[in-house]
């Protein structure tokens, strides 16, 4: 799953996608409720502790293979909400191979879910020590740091991940970086990050919502209108995306589009907080 960023009790209003799509456990994330993204290395042989280069199946030591399989099992347990069982599997993985960085990354995610900040940080720091240039390690450590409000360090981690020429997760890390920059009140920089993430993956609703929300916040209503309309024209629209769309159309004076969105909001989400806000005409909340 895509890992959304959570900001403490961060709601989409603080920079996340609305309830339902980003309601998965996020370290931050993040992106970002609560759906945890497993470390990318959990499904593969991992990286060499010495060189940081990927190991292939042909040269994967037996101990590393056993550790990898344990981490794959732990990932499944974690996704099913069985955090303590996942920890047991991670312990067994590390008994087989104490240098397996994905095990420490996943352990950091588990301890984050358990609200043990000290052990989570120790885990992420150890993963980075073992694989200092692994972009997946840097991405998850950055999510954790953003969750803790350590924005400069977090943004640095994201940038270091993005600097990897072979990294395939550019879009998710740019999204996470942008949301963290919003939290750090670096709005211009955040828009640059989110726009680039949107260019790479325009179908990601978390990126689209956050980009539109930031454009709206910065008073660029024409851009916000374009971005949120594209999202609201998909099956991924929900109460919060519709409400943002209503506010954007209200600002540009398009009463017809505003009424159409309000009709959808009323019909599909009559019990939502957003419909209540619309009925109060609380456009500036």
Question: What would you note in describing this structure?
Answer:
With 285 residues, the chain is mostly helical. It has three domains: 1-37 and 134-218, Serine Threonine Protein Phosphatase 5, Tetratricopeptide repeat; 41-132, Tetratricopeptide repeat domain (Serine Threonine Protein Phosphatase 5, Tetratricopeptide repeat, Alpha Horseshoe); 222-285, no CATH class. It is built from 13 helices and no strands. It has helices spanning 62-79, 83-96, 101-113, 117-130, 135-147, 151-162, 170-183, 187-200, 205-217, 221-232, 239-252, 255-268, 273-279. The longest helix has 18 residues, at 62-79. It starts with 61 loop residues before the first helix and ends in a 6-residue tail after the last helix. The model is unreliable at 1-37 and 40-45 (pLDDT under 50).
Q: Give the full name of the CATH homologous superfamily of the largest domain.
A: Tetratricopeptide repeat domain
CATH top-level class of the largest domain: Mainly Alpha
CATH architecture of the largest domain: Alpha Horseshoe
Task: Give me the secondary-structure category.
Answer: mainly alpha
The portion of residues forming beta strands comes to under 5%
Radius of gyration: 20 Å
Work out the helix count: 13
Uncertain stretches of 5 or more adjacent residues: 1-37, 40-45
- Biggest sheet, open or closed, and with what strands and sense? none
Our count of domains comes out at 3
Oligomeric grouping of the chains:
single chain
What's the order of the H and E elements? HHHHHHHHHHHHH
The CATH topology annotation of the largest domain reads as Serine Threonine Protein Phosphatase 5, Tetratricopeptide repeat
What is the distance, rounded to the nearest whole angstrom, between the alpha carbons of the first and last residues?
Answer: 31 Å
Mean pLDDT value: 85
Shape: elongated
């Amino acid at each position: 799953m895509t890992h959304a960023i959570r900001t403490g009790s961060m709601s989409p209003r603080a920079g996340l996608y609305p309830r339902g799509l980003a309601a998965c456990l996020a370290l931050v994330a993040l992106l970002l409720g609560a759906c945890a993204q497993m470390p990318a290395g959990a499904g593969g042989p991992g990286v060499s502790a010495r060189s940081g280069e990927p190991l292939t199946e042909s040269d994967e030591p037996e101990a590393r293979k056993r550790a990898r399989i344990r981490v794959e099992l732990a990932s499944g347990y974690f996704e099913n909400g069985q955090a303590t069982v996942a920890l047991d599997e991670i312990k067994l993985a590390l008994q087989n191979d104490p240098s397996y960085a994905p095990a420490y990354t996943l352990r950091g995610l588990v301890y984050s879910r358990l609200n043990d900040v000290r052990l989570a940080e120790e885990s992420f720091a150890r993963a980075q020590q073992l694989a200092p240039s692994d972009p997946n390690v840097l991405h998850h450590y950055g999510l954790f740091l953003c969750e803790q409000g350590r924005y400069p360090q977090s943004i640095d981690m994201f940038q270091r991940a993005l600097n990897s020429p072979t990294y395939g997760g550019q879009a998710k890390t740019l999204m996470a970086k942008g949301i963290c920059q919003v939290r750090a009140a670096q709005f211009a920089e955040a828009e640059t990050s989110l726009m680039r993430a949107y260019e790479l993956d325009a179908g990601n609703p978390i990126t689209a919502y956050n980009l539109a929300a930031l454009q709206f916040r910065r008073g660029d209503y024409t851009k916000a209108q374009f971005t949120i309309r594209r999202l609201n024209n998909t099956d991924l629209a929900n109460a919060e995306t519709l409400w943002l769309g209503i506010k954007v159309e209200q600002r540009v004076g398009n009463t017809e589009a505003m009424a159409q969105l309000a009709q959808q909001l009323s019909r599909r989400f009559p019990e939502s907080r957003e419909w209540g806000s619309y009925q109060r005409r609380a456009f500036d909340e």
